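Hey,

Quick one before I head out. I ran the complex with nicotinamide-adenine-dinucleotide overnight. Inputs first:
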Amino acid sequence: MKIGFIGLGNMGAPMAANLVAAGHEVTGFDVVVKALDGLTMAETAAAAAKGQDVVITMLPNGAILRQVAAEILPQMSAGAGFVDCSTVDVASAVAVAKDAEAFGVLAVDAPVSGGIGGASAGTLTFMAGGSEAGFALAAPLFEIMGQKAVHCGASGAGQSAKICNNMILGVTMIATCEAFALADKLGLDRQKMFDVVSTSSGASWSINTYCPAPGIGPQSPADNGYKPGFAAELMVKDMALSQEAAEQVDAATPLGAAALDLYRRFVEDEGGKGKDFSAMLPLFEQKGRGA
Ligand code: NAD
């Protein structure tokens, strides 16, 4: 396929590299990244999108996505696919899909889970929203860049699934960190705590796969000085998106709201910026009930 790839940062660059390695012809554009092995670079987003079978975007937020979409859609051919893999607000995903429809372009919102490691290894999970035809067009590319793709429903459904997933992740990580800090103060050995919880009803991805306690369980950012991994500020972004969506549809998310507040304080006032989101554990270690 002829593919345009716009947004070649931490995630986009390795995803594009995997498409090139699979034999696709990829034209890239990024406002900062000006060269990448195996890609032909374009001068503008519009030039990267023109005449492609599929255009993929991997951008920081919904406002930038809307701006890029306005620029590229008029250049795209009817029947082409526009696959946005960024994590953005549901409203932007739906708005961009509506605009695409006017040009006969098949829009798919397809945010990912799996982080930079998954992007490099080609093992991302894609959660997609859009038409059957759009999903079918993008599916072979998801297979190259990932290990699983779920068609969640109409436009916006991919972003909805992503923010719900990450709201669970954000909340369970805090719950796991506060439980470890409590266990410490109760004099419980951390390894014993892990052995019990990871095989009991308190188990979750946060403890079993990404344990926030160093030296316990599988390798995780905790074993690397809490270097991200998944940076706490990205968790703030995703938790804020979940709360914005919850506001719009009047959904009760009290734990989501509390977790957003805690991550925000962590990043803004408590030294969490640039650290993995699981570094909530050393933070809770220092706190007592009054904090
Ligand atoms: P990044 O900041 O490394 O990359 C974004 C890229 O977009 C940058 O290279 C930037 O120069 C480029 N860009 C910004 N504005 C542009 C424009 N107008 N035109 C073209 N390029 C532009 O971010 P990332 O970590 O690659 O994340 C990308 C998206 O993936 C985000 O929405 C993020 O929430 C999501 N995501 C990230 C991770 C992760 O672990 N990093 C995991 C899952 C999802």
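The longest helix spans residues 157-185.

Talk tomorrow,
K.
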